Amino acid sequence: MTGPKPSVDRLGRLLNLVPYLLARPGILVSEAAADQGVSEKQLREDLELLWVCGLPGYGPGDLIDMALDGDRVTISHDAGIDRPLKLTQDEALALVVALRMLAETPGTGTRDVIERALAKIENAAGDLADAPVAVKLPANAEKLDRVRAAVEGGHALQMTYYTAARDETTSRVVDPMRVVMVDGRAYMEAWCRRAEAVRMFRVDRIDAFTELDEPSAPPPAAVPQDVTDGVFRPTADLPLVTLRIGRHSRWITEYYPVEDIRREGTGEEWVVTMRVTDLGWAQRLLLGLGPDVIVVGPPELLDRIRAQAAAALDQYSSPAG
């Protein structure tokens, strides 16, 4: 039985795919898949990923572009990847440092993949990989170790926590249940007495905590969540946001869970619906995405964005004091 290929193999395939397709405009997808040694389905997934790859700026003219006409594909803009890439010394060293850092991250579930990728890059980097660069994450590791020890100690915690969705810091008492790793991040799952529900708290967002004398006592209803598909679990009671997005913002559908995707007109624009935990979070996200994303609803979110945009324009029009 053959398992999925490591991500590093896919990265190498993607880097070579653009120059391969440039040399074969209009090639059949089935033929390209056979040459690359992958299924046609996998190649189409690779092409969808290439569509949102490119140079910093990620605007028109920065991203790889192509024409996928039925069963044939042609690269129309290569974003500078016109030949198989070879890492410079600085790039190789940066990758070595990043992978060493990832390998040092506590609880990383794909350590074997990381070590294989690191071995390949160190081999390609030659003597440069022997540079005296040591990577440690003492702050993150120390905090995670302290949280784990507190959870194992079986006491309730008084903690200060930053909630990114609402951009606020709160103080709360929680009854810890466990520490889990999800998508490379450490979370403490606990019964939150303030919310009267089970919550997942990112360890790196716990600003401070104190162990209380009383024991951790989650109620019988506090059941650990299934985090196989991630921490965020959209439910019908959460706000539903509808967006019209252009090609260069399709990454949203890969990064965030969406409920529906509908292509409009020629298919260049997609109408996407997604649940969000908080409209304030959605407001901050969408204000940073630029004109390639248009908010369709709900009306409250549109009003929030208009008001903040108008306030920003007022600041620009006001004379400097």
TrEMBL record:
Pfam families given in the database record: HTH_PafC, WCX, WYL
PafC HTH domain sequence ranges: 9-122
Domain of life the protein comes from: Bacteria
Occurrences of domain WCX (ranges): 241-313
Record-annotated WYL domain positions: 143-209
Protein name, as recorded: Protein pafC
Organism: Paractinoplanes toevensis
Source species taxonomy: Bacteria, Bacillati, Actinomycetota, Actinomycetes, Micromonosporales
